[in-house]
Amino acid sequence: MLLFSLISNPYAKAGLDEFDHIMNHFPxxxxxxxxxxxxxxxxxxxxxxxxDAIDNTHGPAIIDLPxxxxxxEDSVKLKSNIWIVGxxxxxxxxxxxKANKPAFTISPPEGETYRNIRFxxxxxxxxxxxxxxxxxxxxTYKADGSLEYLVFDGLNIKTEGGGQHGIVISGDxxxxxxxxxxxxxxxxxxxxxxGVLILKPTEYIMIQDNSVRVVQHTWDAFNSLAIYGGSKxxxxxxNHVEGRGHTGIAISPGxxxxxxxxxxxxxxxxxxxxxEVERKKSHGxxxxxxxxxxxxxxxxxxxxxxxxxxxxxxxxxxxxxxIRSNTIRDCRIGIYLHAGRNITLRDNIFxxxxxxxxxxxxxxxxxxxxxxxxxxx
Length: 377
Ligand SMILES: [Ca+2]
Prior knowledge:
Layout: H1 2-8, H2 10-14, H3 18-23, E1 32-35, H4 46-55, E2 61-64, E3 68-72, E4 76-78, E5 82-85, E6 92-96, E7 102-106, E8 113-125, E9 137-142, E10 146-158, E11 165-170, E12 176-182, E13 185-189, E14 196-198, E15 202-208, E16 211-215, E17 225-237, E18 240-242, E19 247-260, E20 263-265, E21 273-279, E22 289-294, E23 297-299, E24 303-309, E25 319-324, E26 327-329, E27 333-337, E28 341-346, E29 349-351, E30 355-359, H5 368-371, E31 374-376
Parallel strand pairs: 1-2, 2-5, 3-6, 4-7, 5-8, 6-8, 7-9, 8-10, 9-11, 10-12, 10-13, 11-14, 12-15, 13-16, 14-17, 15-17, 16-18, 17-19, 18-20, 19-21, 19-22, 20-23, 21-24, 22-25, 23-26, 24-27, 25-28, 26-29, 27-30, 28-31
The structure holds calcium ion (CA).
């Protein structure tokens, strides 16, 4: 029994016993509080006033935003040890209506590391932004520098209308590690948009207790939650996710992670499905492996849960993936093992699926040898 749990639990393999310790030891709240006066909430230079408060601090500080609406003309740029804290996701509202401008940006220059940045208890509403094809949206980290200890908690981010992302972590150089997205509502829509997109290779990610929705129909919106880049050590747990693009929760590629206890509705508009463990070369180096997909409830997907390789390089097929104790309801294919090695299915419940399990049907480059490595218990 012990041997079984060691084999089937990716955390045991990856030494992920550090995960909880890291997540419970983020830097403490800054002692200094810089309150933004309510009188500044007049829609005039609101972004400059918040920016000045950030730029004039020397040392860790909470930028305390009052109840009301800030209208930004330009993105507010964060630096190390700054927490942006509102009075509540229905009380402090930040809007921006300029194309290609996220409300907040985090951009450490090459060779620098920004650390300990937090956003909490506020709404970011970019629904009046003109269409900008991924350029705008909520919060963007795109830089050649490095980042650690980043928290998004208690946010309400709305970007539908303009095709912008909710939260994005991208950039080519440097490292990113220790990221939490928790207790937030994120609603996005439009072409090529993601709710949470982690594109830069990132280590130690917790995405928990969020509600993430793609609204506006058609597959040309992308994924609600996406961990890409070959990121490592993640937990995506207890989220409610609605997908209307490709996929509700996408790992593509990522390793040593867990996708558990989420509720994912595919809304039937999806071209793919609800939860994917994927390889796609343009999303990052290597393949997806050592992943546990457990106790999720998925419904109304084209494919409920699937392992996938979009490239003809079978050495990068997903491997060591355990899919167990999920409830899969009302999907065209419950579990679709398009490609992979050492994939284990166990104790899944299928309700009203057209087909429960399909292995590689219609995929011409999937070899019989690859198919034989699926294990359905
Ligand atoms: Ca003002």
